[in-house]
Amino acid sequence: MTAPATVPALDTLRAEAISALDAASDLDALLTWERAYLGPKGALTAFLRSLGNLPADQRPEAGRSANALKIELQATFSGRHADVERSAIADRLAAEALDVTLPGRPHPIGTVHPISAMIDELSDIFALMGFRTVYGPEVETGHYNFDLLNIPADHPARDVWDTMIVDTGAGGPEIVLRTHTSPMQARTMETSTPPVRVVVPGRCYRYEAQDSSHEWMVHQLEGLAVDERITMADLKGVLAELARQLFGPTRRIRFRCDFFPFVEPGVDFAVDCAICDGTGCRVCKHTGWLEMGGAGMVHPDVLRGVGYDPERYTGFAFGLGIARMVMMKYGVDDVRAFAAGDLRFLRQFASLTA
Ligand code: FA5
After folding, report:
1. Which tens digit of pLDDT belongs to each residue from 26-38?
2. Rg (Cα) of the chain, in Å, rounded?
3. Is 263 one of the annotated active-site residues of the chain?
4. CA of 37 to the centre of ligand 1 (A)
5. Neighbour-count burial for 73-108, b at 16+ CB within 10 Å, e otherwise
6. Residues linked to residue 189 through DSSP beta bridges, in sequence order
7. Which of 28, 61, 101, 250 is 20 to 30 A from residue 87's alpha carbon, by CA?
8. Is the CB–ligand 1 distance for residue 295 below 6 Å?
9. What are phi and psi of 317, to 5 degrees?
10. Which is it for the CA torsion 298, 300, 304, 307, positive or negative?
11. Is residue 290 lining ligand 1, measured as CB closer than 6 Å?
């Protein structure tokens, strides 16, 4: 049975409600309070429902008082709710406060890889001598990597290049990872008419054991010049100028006879070691010289293979190891350092980005 609704009971309810509201210090507690006093099953609602039990003459007075209390409690609740919400926001802001005056944490910025920096430098040097920089595919056909370079299938010279074969070519063309940048000689000549002057930087791949001067991935720079009356003296002049630009005016260069099926005559090209000035050190393996690559006059068969008349045109070609040039320029004595990904090594070249 419902307790009789009387004005003294309402006074008690008011006192309880106000003190419970004062004690509710967070939003959850406030909502619990709202349910307990003002909600459909709350104490004040129960009081209003029990008004019918009062004698008729007391009902208007008790009803007015109960409604006035409801309005008072709702207003007090709203005020308190707003206060608690404001202080919750203030607490959260204080907890998440940022000190915008603190210095930022620096983000490490990458640097240009020394091999890439050398490719840029070489392209600039050769551009001044009239050479255009072009790029070719790293996955190449045996036709361009070997056949058009005067190295027919089954020729013993084909073994020299320790080829990584992608497809042996049983049902189509033989596909290889290019073993040198020389296939771009034929590709360039096929699509241009003399005069031709290009350099071709890029990666090449060889099935080779690694040591301090050999990697299985090699960066080379091919050079090719074809025109009327080009001679070995032009080749020598261009490579001597390269050595001077890269390593300084006192460098000497050396040509020694060498064999490459796609040049005749062929030479190996070396520069006297800039680290020890030719007296012998770790970088030049105590020889005083650093071999940069192969070179020579383009073989007449190669010119004929791309439709050039070897009676009218001659040319020179060279293929240089880019890592070797970086090693000599900066005194690096192990080629494996370039692909090892050791940031302590790479950061030493940070100024090359500037
Ligand atoms: C060639 O690859 C010829 N295509 C070069 C050439 C081009 C000759 C045009 C004549 C005319 P060779 O295999 O010697 O030649 O490589 C040239 C240079 O690439 C080497 O002197 C060396 O500097 C670099 N090189 C070759 N193999 C490696 C290797 N495994 N690791 C690091 N550098 C290498």
Report:
1. 889 999 999 999 9
2. 44
3. yes
4. 91
5. beeebeebbeebeeeeeeeeeeeeeeeeeeeeeeee
6. none
7. 101
8. yes
9. -140, 150
10. positive
11. no
